[in-house]
């Protein structure tokens, strides 16, 4: 679902998206039935073979979301793909990519230190969570009403049946909605159990409006998979269980955030937690508020914004924009030289920079607009001083980090790896955050200026 959500966001912006997946995925994943783009099922046995993709037209972006793939696979495709985005939530293997997304609650970019190169920008935590459209939030103070059971579309281990047993033990007497895929192997058994609850539970298959179902419920039993953050966004208090090893970190993060109660996959444990939350209105509402605060549902749009950034060498035609950014009041306040720059002097300086092979200015664009620039000045053999400026209208969107990360990768491809240094005012917390996210670390300080250094990769 993560890839489909991102592909849907990109397609809505005019991108052409192809989905490459294992043989048989189309039949097993009902969500693909309404996908308007191209779906390519890879030949059996070649799902993890990079050569299977090399036979296709090269993409501008390759998105890799597969627990069995790592840096070796990505490295084999680096020259073919324009850029690579990896989606992961395990932080247990190396990657070689331009962007890495891990939307796990509590995840830190530093969890990937030593697993990604210094030119990789790691986006960690639920700010970039890829939630399907429609998950726009719900009232965290709503009444208990109905109970939702949602433990995966196919649920091969029949955790749904176990949850229904727990509800029977709890004896809450509340209406229950059970959500399963139409191809779930235990669907008939689940329907039998649901019919025996008091009152009988509704079994909903292949639900199109999952957000609406969640909004109508006041308590849930759910797994810590992709839908966990959807429930969080819909302010739905949840008794969470782990039904796959890759869910453990997600479940632990949700519980630490107070957004869910984690229990063992055991009918008695689930029944006890449900009963506790059902009778404690304030505990449910507190959990709902904390869950809703984890993400705002705009993660796919934020990620698409970053993926749309392109870099090109500056020209004299960029002079007016560069001057306006340099003379912006906030830019001047954070610059080492705070005076206003005169137009004639600026254009003379720019002409000199553009003619100097030891200096490089890269301008970032997104769509038809410019969003900022990164400048490299040679200091010595394979060593550059780096500075960055984000257009005032583009601030606050995370674009500074992606500008710098893409620019660092660009100059290393052009001129080989090298050390980089940035000089940042002590008061300029935003720039410090940008450079830290891109692998720079403070090495010195003097007279209100912090010196950040990034060693050669």
TrEMBL record:
A molecular-function term among this protein's GO annotations: acyltransferase activity, transferring groups other than amino-acyl groups
Xref: Pfam families: Acetyltransf_3 (PF13302)
N-acetyltransferase domain segment(s): 309-457
Keywords: Acyltransferase, Transferase
Keyword Transferase appears in the UniProt entry: yes
Keyword Nucleotide-binding: no
Residues noted as binding substrate in the record, renumbered to the chain: 132, 230
Coiled-coil annotated spans: none
CDD domains with a match to the protein in the record: NAT_SF (cd04301)
Gene3D superfamilies according to UniProt: 3.40.50.11190, 3.40.630.30, Glycogen Phosphorylase B (3.40.50.2000)
Signal peptide region: none
Protein's recorded name: N-acetyltransferase domain-containing protein
Organism: Paramagnetospirillum marisnigri
